[in-house]
Amino acid sequence: MSTEWNLPSGLMPDPASPDWLSKADNAWQLTAATLVGLQSVPGLVILYGSIVKKKWAVNSAFMALYAFAAVLLCWVGWGYRMSFGDKFIPFLGKPDVALDQKYLLGQPFVGKFPNATMIYFQFVFAAITLILIAGALLGRMNFHAWMLFVPLWLTFSYTFTAYSIWCPTGWLAKMGIIDYSGGYVIHLASGAAGFTAAFWVGPRANKDRERFPPNNILLMLAGAGLLWMGWTGFNGGDPYSVSVDASLAVLNTHVCTATSLLTWLFLDIIFFGKPSVIGATQGMITGLVCITPAAGVVQGWAAILMGLMSGSIPWYSMMVLHKKIWLLKQVDDTMAVFHTHAVAGSLGGILTGFFAEPKLNRLFYLVDTWQHYIGLAYGLQTGRTTAGFKQMGIQLLGIIFVILLNIFTTSVICFLIKFVVPLRLADDELQTGDDAIHGEEAYALWEMGRSTSPSIIQFMKSSLRWFQRVVVVVGVVRLKWLDLYLLN
């Protein structure tokens, strides 16, 4: 007989709570993951569906929703183990399924919670990366091509970047690159890939490029609000514990974002005379992106400085340089993903290399920071100049790696997809939009006081004719009755 049955009930081991499990850490990690998931569904689904023309609302929202579902199956099937599994090559793990019960209930490479929690947490990061890429392609990409693009890009691009930078055995991770929560893996990668894919897919229809007003600005703000608040889990969950560093990361995130939004707003007022709601939303996004690689490893004053730069440098690149540089003018990047994610992500990576505080890095990485994780500003201050410049060099190397990898892999993927289905919608579909692609419309009943559905129009016309007939009949009857009354 097992001795376990002879133990008092209060001393019996709980198989659901092994010694290494922290219930607090597990609860926060699941909550943080869900917050990040809400950034995509419904956050970016709402944002994309409302910031485009009415005729593209369904298609834009559905591109985001499809990507979220498709990434999950690919992630548990092979993507997670390629990103965080056993080493295969210096920048990739071995492909393997991540659904085995023993594996899911075991402890991951970091954190005091089950592998199942880690897989879920990392999935929502992978999903939002693909959805951000979609932002550059709204309004013209063939949906069937997008269905192929999502699993291919996740497999042959995202996994390489995630393993290289975030997995402890990745080559850039071993060099000491600082990417707290995805400035490189998510935002720089999505910006570079989105811009490249937009080049291969081609531009929107001329009418859409000339005028592309949002169909619902209030809903756009609702989606943007979900994106901002969800970032609490985005950056607050990356210490993988309920720690002081998580709290610092959350506060720095919101401070930088608010500063960036206000900076962008003031620049719009100064140079264009009006406070643009869409502009303020762009400033919000660039602030969130810029602070992401640095959230828990910089001090509060640095977060404010980063907000000032993330609200001004991407503003300048979007409003000024975009109109002057030939390549930027040629590529139709619908949501300006290049500026809001590639430029802001690169800026954040560089500023992280400058402002990263050794003591905070020690809290996050739990290692000695004498040779690694020293921002250049602190290297100069403490006499460790070589270490500071080395950190800056590693940050720049990471930027070059992510950009080149995504230009190459995204180009190859688009080239291969063209042999199966067209990357771009046909001209008649570009003119019609949602109804031609999905047979559905976002606002199927009313627009500008009139019906937009042919069946509704026919019904109303028929009803009006019958109403007119009834009025005529009633009028005739009343006249006859009046004549009879007067004669009598």
UniProtKB/TrEMBL annotation:
<feature type="transmembrane region" description="Helical">
    <location>
        <begin position="145"/>
        <end position="164"/>
    </location>
</feature>
<dbReference type="GO" id="GO:0005886">
    <property type="term" value="C:plasma membrane"/>
</dbReference>
<keyword id="KW-0924">Ammonia transport</keyword>
<dbReference type="InterPro" id="IPR002229">
    <property type="entry name" value="RhesusRHD"/>
</dbReference>
<feature type="domain" description="Ammonium transporter AmtB-like">
    <location>
        <begin position="27"/>
        <end position="443"/>
    </location>
</feature>
<protein>
    <recommendedName>
        <fullName>Ammonium transporter</fullName>
    </recommendedName>
</protein>
<feature type="transmembrane region" description="Helical">
    <location>
        <begin position="56"/>
        <end position="78"/>
    </location>
</feature>
<keyword id="KW-0813">Transport</keyword>
<feature type="transmembrane region" description="Helical">
    <location>
        <begin position="251"/>
        <end position="273"/>
    </location>
</feature>
<feature type="transmembrane region" description="Helical">
    <location>
        <begin position="214"/>
        <end position="231"/>
    </location>
</feature>
<keyword id="KW-0812">Transmembrane</keyword>
<keyword id="KW-1133">Transmembrane helix</keyword>
<keyword id="KW-0472">Membrane</keyword>
<dbReference type="InterPro" id="IPR024041">
    <property type="entry name" value="NH4_transpt_AmtB-like_dom"/>
</dbReference>
<dbReference type="GO" id="GO:0008519">
    <property type="term" value="F:ammonium channel activity"/>
</dbReference>
<feature type="transmembrane region" description="Helical">
    <location>
        <begin position="119"/>
        <end position="138"/>
    </location>
</feature>
<feature type="transmembrane region" description="Helical">
    <location>
        <begin position="285"/>
        <end position="316"/>
    </location>
</feature>
<feature type="transmembrane region" description="Helical">
    <location>
        <begin position="392"/>
        <end position="417"/>
    </location>
</feature>
<feature type="transmembrane region" description="Helical">
    <location>
        <begin position="27"/>
        <end position="49"/>
    </location>
</feature>
<dbReference type="InterPro" id="IPR029020">
    <property type="entry name" value="Ammonium/urea_transptr"/>
</dbReference>
<dbReference type="InterPro" id="IPR018047">
    <property type="entry name" value="Ammonium_transpt_CS"/>
</dbReference>
<dbReference type="Pfam" id="PF00909">
    <property type="entry name" value="Ammonium_transp"/>
</dbReference>
<feature type="transmembrane region" description="Helical">
    <location>
        <begin position="336"/>
        <end position="356"/>
    </location>
</feature>
<feature type="transmembrane region" description="Helical">
    <location>
        <begin position="184"/>
        <end position="202"/>
    </location>
</feature>
<comment type="similarity">
    <text>Belongs to the ammonia transporter channel (TC 1.A.11.2) family.</text>
</comment>
<dbReference type="InterPro" id="IPR001905">
    <property type="entry name" value="Ammonium_transpt"/>
</dbReference>
